[in-house]
Amino acid sequence: MDGTVSLAVRGAVAEIALAAGPLNLVTRPLLRDLNAAIRDLAGRAGIRCVILHGGEGRAFCAGSDIREFADLRADASEHKILFEDMVLRNLARLPMPTIAAIDGPALGGGLELALACDLRVLRRGVAVGLTESRLGGLAGNGSVRLTRLVGPARAKEMLFTGETISDEQALAWGVVNRIADGSALDAARAMAATIAARGPVSNRLAKALVDAAQDQALDAALCASTVAQQAIFDSSDLHTGVAAFFAKREPEFDGR
């Protein structure tokens, strides 16, 4: 790793911090380090939630380092597009819930990173946007993910104008899940603690089913839900939860 990303694990919650300078610009080294952290976490059964945040940077991530664009033309897919899309796909496909904690601007490729997470917590007063059209660029991955969140008309407005939107607008449109009056990272940590206390088998299967609801035909998604429900009844987590309910105590799930 090139030191542009740091990974910390505290109990059942992992934190990926971007550490690529004040603006946390998306570069090839950052993408390599982020992908390594994602690969590390993907196989860890004990991790119940992952937080992605901007570390010490002024921005969560201010987008791509456009200095890399000068040498990219016909070979852009080879040197940037395909690798960046793969990293975003890998982030979105982490089996456990993920939260983007946005304490500074998330612009262009930075918002694309946040959109690849399951949930987004935004610090009050921080703007977000897919700003690529200002430079004549395009948020390819972000165009698709944003549309699934906010619908085509709102996505087109953000993409066509390249303007940022306020915290309240981001919440009203569904770009973010919550606004934090203080630190978005602190709010994300509180949310992650709640998620980590819930059934980990349930949460992983719920994530898979919600994704299937968008990616598959209705009947195929419902078939997947039947299989997932059987997996829940086969798990020890459900029976641990039921026993805790009758004993009037909080369950302690083991993720099996």
Automatic annotation (TrEMBL):
Lineage top rank: taxon: Bacteria
Family: Belongs to the enoyl-CoA hydratase/isomerase family.
Protein known as: Enoyl-CoA hydratase/isomerase family protein
Organism: Azospirillum oleiclasticum
